[in-house]
Recover the amino acids of this structure.
């Protein structure tokens, strides 16, 4: 690592003030991506702003028919929260499938969303449930939040405060994971909501995306058979040593079917 100054603010305003004074400062949430990158000297922030001391960013609560998850809430907390398990079991299952116990107890939902790794799980749930990302400046609908590879709608100095998940009629997540990292080679989150069905795919391409053809079919007939013949083009899909673009395209349909079956 290169030298840096360390800060542990106790409020969002204090964290935002530090960021506003230094363009080279970086936020530290769970550190699952940033710290390894710093150790490899691929990132060299002048200041590290640790958000773990901000109490208002932690915890899960139910409010006005939504499940609100604080940005600094670890994956394990979401996975084992009784309210999440009862109201949005698909979200609890997804959180419990992230990485290993060490990752689940250190990684946070806010850090995952701000990083927007193409193979991360939470973007699938946020987009699949039509959630709203609340920051220190505004509210961003899921459909407007994810812009591309490691790119989001967050502005400079903008911090995620919490995520508001509407409670669906039913939902589920199915993932074909990398056996070592447990990242999603392809993950499918399906949800039947008051506004209709949503199908979100993560891992396959450079950014999480929806599949309108599957959503339309499932709106008419909620069953795995309704989408079994729907294929997605492999154009611009990820290709690496774990899976080709064509194989990922095949997995999109397979995982979406499994998610529908799991949702019941």
């Amino acid at each position: 690592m290169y030298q840096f100054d360390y800060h542990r603010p106790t409020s969002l305003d204090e964290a935002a003030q530090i960021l506003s004074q230094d363009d080279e400062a970086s936020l530290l949430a769970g550190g699952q991506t940033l710290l390894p990158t710093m150790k490899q000297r691929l990132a060299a922030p002048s200041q590290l702003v640790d958000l773990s001391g901000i109490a208002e960013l932690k915890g899960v609560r139910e409010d006005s028919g939504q499940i609100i998850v604080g940005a600094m809430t670890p994956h394990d907390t979401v996975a084992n929260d009784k309210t999440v398990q009862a109201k949005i079991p698909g979200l609890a299952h997804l959180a419990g499938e992230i990485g290993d116990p060490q990752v689940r107890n250190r990684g946070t939902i806010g850090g995952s969303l701000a990083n927007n790794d193409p193979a991360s799980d939470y973007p699938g749930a946020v987009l699949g449930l039509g959630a709203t990302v609340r920051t220190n400046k505004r509210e961003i609908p899921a459909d407007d939040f994810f812009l591309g590879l490691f790119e989001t709608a967050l502005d400079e100095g903008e911090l995620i405060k919490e995520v508001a998940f509407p409670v669906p009629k039913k939902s589920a997540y199915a993932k074909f994971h990398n056996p070592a990292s447990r990242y999603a080679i392809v993950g499918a989150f399906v949800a039947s909501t008051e506004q209709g069905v949503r199908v979100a795919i993560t891992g396959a391409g450079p950014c999480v995306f929806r599949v309108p053809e599957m959503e339309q079919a499932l709106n008419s007939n909620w069953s795995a058979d309704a989408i079994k013949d729907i294929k997605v083009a492999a154009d611009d899909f990820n290709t690496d040593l774990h899976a080709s673009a064509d194989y990922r395209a095949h997995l999109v349909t397979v995982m979406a079917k499994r998610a529908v079956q799991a949702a019941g």
Notes: The mean pLDDT is 96. The first strand starts at residue 5 and ends at 7. The chain is about 35% helix and 25% strand.
